Amino acid sequence: MKRVLISGASVAGPSVAYWLHRYGFETTVVERAPALRPGGSAVDFRGAQVEILRQMGVLDEIRAHETGMGEVTVVDRDGQPLLKMPGEFMSGEVEIMRGDLARVLYNATRENTEYLFGDWITGLTETAGGVDVTFAHGEARTFDFVIGADGAHSGVRALLFGPEERFATHGGCYLAGYSGRNRLGLDRTGVWYNEPGRGVMVTSYGVGFAFTSDVLDYDRQDVEQQKKIVHERFVDVGWRTPELLEDLYDADDLYFAAIGQIHLDRWHHGRVALVGDAAWSAGPGGSGTGTAMLGAYVLAGELATHDDHREAFAEFERQLRPSAKIGHGQAKRAGSFLAPGSRSGIWRRNLMCKVMFAGPIGAWFNKMTMRSSDIVKLKKYA
After folding, report:
1. In sequence order, what are the residues at sequence separation of 6 or more whose Cβ sits closer than 8 angstroms to the Cβ of residue 170?
2. pLDDT digits (tens, 9 = 90+) for 268-303
3. H or E element, residue 81
4. Cα distances (angstroms) measured from residue 199 to each of 74, 191, 209, 225, 320
5. Residue 231 and residue 242: Cα distance in Å, rounded?
6. What is the pTM of this model?
C-alpha cells in the first residue's frame, strides 16, 4: 500500500485524504495548528463542485450547517438602502462557514486517516523510492508521495520552489472577520457599508471588514496584533461600526489575511505536488474552496490510475489549470470591489451592481460565475 503525506487539515488536505483512501492509499495529514481551526469566512460551492460534495457523501451534512444566506443590502451612513445583491451572487448554491466545513471533512476522514496536529514539515528529500520527510517535532518518516495542501502561505511550496515572495501578488486590500453578536437582528441576510478604502459587512453569523493597504508587516500568529490593526483602521468609520468593534477583542475566531494570488509555472516536482491555495490561490470571488475540492478529486484520481506519478501530476495540472486561470481573473479586482478607494469609486461600484443584477444581464452574470467550476469535466475514476 502506497503511503501519502498531506500537509494541511483545512479543506484541500482532508479532501485529498478522502479520495486517496478510497483508492487504497494509506494517508497521513500533518497540521501546524494544535487542533482544527475554527471560524474563517463563509465559502460557497457551485455546479460541479456541489457534485463533488454529493459523491463524498457530505452534502447533506453541509446543507445542515449552511448559512442559507439571502440578499445583502448596501446601505448609506444613515442605514438607508442603496441596492440589494441577490443571495446566489454572494453565496452560490451552497454556502457554509469554513470552520464548519473543515469539521465535516475531518469527521469524514478521521477513522481512516492519521492526523498529526501541532507539527509541520521541515525538510523533503526525494530518493529513488520515496520522499524522506523531517518534522518540527515528530520523528523522520518516509512516504511514497507528499501533497502540499497547506494554503496560500504553504510551507511545502517554500521547500519545493522557494520563498513565497517569488510567486505571490498583493491585491492591495486586507480582509478580517469574526463571529459575533447579531447586533442588527438579521435573519440569514446581510448589510454592507462602505467609506473610501474601507468596507463593513454584517450578517446573521458574523462581521467582516475590508480595507485597502500596502503590504503590512505583522505576525500571522499574533492575533492581538491583528485585532489592533483592524481597530485602528475602522475606529473612525461611521454607520454602526463603533458598536460592531466592541465585539472585536472578545472574538476567539478572528480571520485576518491579505487579498492576494499565487501564480506558479508548475504545481509539482518529483514526488511532491501542490493543490488548492498552495498552488493557485485566487482570493475572494475566485471560487477557491470549491476549486480546491475539485483539485483534490482530480489529483487523487489521477494518482490512482497512473503507474507513473509524473504522468498523474501532469494530467492533474492539465485539467485544473483552466479553472484556476478563470478564478484568478474573477478575483483580480476583489479589493476594489469590496473597498473602493474613493466616494466616486463606491458610486461606480454600486451602479455597476444595479446594472449587473438586472434582468437578462443578471442571469448571464450568474452563468459566468459557474465557469470556473463547470470547466472541469469530472472523470469517473475506478
Report:
1. 214, 215, 258, 259, 260
2. 999 999 999 999 998 887 777 889 999 999 999 999
3. strand 81-85
4. 10, 11, 6, 20, 32
5. 9
6. 0.91
